[in-house]
């Protein structure tokens, strides 16, 4: 009876059976539980990064290859990988438990209170890429905003760099590209990918959201995109880029949050 009661509490999204209201819908609560506690999530994550690591040598050697559609004649440029941060490099799955509604400031405070959890497989992949001479760029939609009482023009960037270092990968502001850090860097990540492509041949994209790979797939468009992308358009674009999935594009599962949750 006790075991059944505890299971019902978990499925209802209750934190430690304390009577705390459900955080989201039951389906999303199950996603939060899966990422936090399922060995299957860790297995999938390890599999994605292992696959990417195995593909590294071939993409480095093939100077005609780019994971960015439209990037041509880039064989003379040094290779780079573009990686998302949250739920791709660093996990904030523990933050998702009982902290609804989300805010950037809540996540900032939470991440400053404890060491970062690397997503399984990330550090091993990053080490292999860096050893092979590949530059890592981290493109995140955390905002570049000031915080009252914090003496930093972009404190969210400093916190993100600290998280990545705690996860085992050394980086700096030059290689962490925040939303709003430049006027043209909206939450549409296309402009930041194009920024990296000016100086590097992008051999891989790694993320947990369709927007980490395909431009203009946000349900709420941001410049330079002008129209919202619904479920039908997102599915069509996913299949139109079928040749990239698992070959230059590597996506991590995220049933907790993302652009898919608001697409209609």
* CATH fold-level assignment of the largest domain: Rossmann fold
Characterize the largest beta sheet: strand count, sense, and whether it forms a barrel.
5 strands, parallel
Number of helices: 8
Oligomer: single chain
How much of the polypeptide forms β-strand, as a percent range?
Answer: 5-15%
Write down the overall geometry.
globular
Query: How far apart lie the N and C ends?
Result: 40 Å
- How would you spell out the order of helices and strands? HHHEEHEHEHEHEHE
Low-confidence stretches: 1-24
Proper CATH architecture of the largest domain? 3-Layer(aba) Sandwich
Radius of gyration: 19 Å
The neighbouring-strand order within the major sheet is: 5-4-1-6-7
Q: What is the helical fraction, as a range of percent?
A: 25-40%
* Count of beta strands: 7
CATH class of the largest domain: Alpha Beta
Which secondary-structure class do the elements indicate? alpha/beta
Q: What count of structural domains?
A: 2
**Mean pLDDT across all amino acids:** 90
CATH superfamily of the largest domain: HAD superfamily/HAD-like
Structure, explained:
The protein has 8 helices and 7 strands, in the order αααββαβαβαβαβαβ. It is of the alpha/beta class. The chain has 2 domains: 1-37, no CATH class; 45-261, HAD superfamily/HAD-like (Rossmann fold). The strands form 2 sheets. Strands 5-4-1-6-7 form a 5-stranded parallel beta sheet, with helices on both faces. β6, α8 (231-240) and β7 form a beta-alpha-beta unit. α3 (39-61) runs parallel beside α5 (122-131). The longest helix is centred in the first third of the chain and has 23 residues, at 39-61. The model is unreliable at 1-24 (pLDDT under 50).
């Amino acid at each position: 009876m006790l075991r059944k009661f505890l299971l019902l509490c978990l499925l209802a999204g209750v934190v430690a059976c304390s009577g705390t209201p459900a955080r989201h819908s039951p389906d999303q609560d199950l996603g939060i539980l899966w990422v936090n506690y399922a060995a299957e999530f860790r297995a999938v994550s390890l599999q994605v990064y292992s696959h990417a690591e195995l593909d590294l040598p071939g993409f480095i050697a093939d100077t005609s290859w780019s994971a960015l559609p439209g990037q041509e004649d880039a064989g003379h440029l040094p290779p780079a990988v573009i990686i998302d941060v949250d739920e791709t490099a660093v996990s904030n799955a523990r933050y998702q438990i009982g902290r609804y509604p989300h805010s950037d400031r809540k996540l900032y405070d939470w991440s400053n209170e404890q060491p970062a959890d690397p997503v399984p497989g990330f550090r091993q992949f990053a080490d292999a890429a860096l050893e092979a001479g590949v530059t890592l760029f981290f493109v995140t939609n955390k905002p570049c905003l000031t915080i009252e009482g914090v003496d930093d023009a972009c404190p969210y960037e400093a916190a993100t760099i600290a998280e990545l270092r705690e996860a085992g990968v050394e980086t700096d502001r030059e290689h962490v590209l925040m939303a709003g850090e430049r006027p043209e860097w909206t939450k549409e990540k296309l402009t930041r990918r194009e920024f990296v492509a000016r100086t590097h041949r992008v051999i891989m994209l790694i993320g947990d959201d369709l927007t980490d790979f395909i431009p203009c797939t946000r349900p709420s468009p941001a410049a330079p995109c002008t129209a919202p992308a619904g479920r039908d358009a997102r599915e069509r674009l996913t299949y139109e880029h079928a040749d990239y999935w698992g070959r230059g594009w590597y996506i991590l599962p995220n049933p907790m949050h993302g652009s898919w949750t608001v697409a209609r």
